[in-house]
Amino acid sequence: MTLGIEEKPEMKSPIDSLIVDLILEHFNVQSLEGRDEILTGDQFSELIKLAEGMYYEEVTKHQKLGLA
């Protein structure tokens, strides 16, 4: 039931999902280790680079190589 509010189809970016998962994992590890749950700008940048690499690896995994 939407209470008169039109629902829009959800558009999710695969790389955004990866970033969110990595951030949650970062905080979970800190919590399990009993540390304060903090994400610095540098750590965020590292997570972005990691997510980008994971995304491109997944995208290219099933691609056939072209011959020039």
Task: Report the sheet with the most strands, covering strand number, pairing sense and barrel closure.
Answer: none
Helix and strand sequence:
HH
Low-confidence stretches: none
Let me know the number of strands: 0
Radius of gyration over alpha carbons?
A: 18 Å
Question: Would you mind describing this structure in some detail?
Answer:
By secondary structure, the protein is mainly α. The chain has a domain at 14-58. The protein has 2 helices and no strands. It has helices spanning 14-32, 41-61. Helix 1 crosses helix 2. The relative contact order is 0.12. The model has no long low-confidence stretch (mean pLDDT 87).
Describe what is shown at a glance.
This protein has 68 residues and is mainly alpha-helical. It has helices at 14-32, 41-61. The protein has a domain at 14-58.
Question: Secondary-structure map with pairings?
Answer:
Blueprint: H1 14-32, H2 41-61
Helix pairs in contact: 1-2
Features:
mainly alpha, 68 residues, single chain
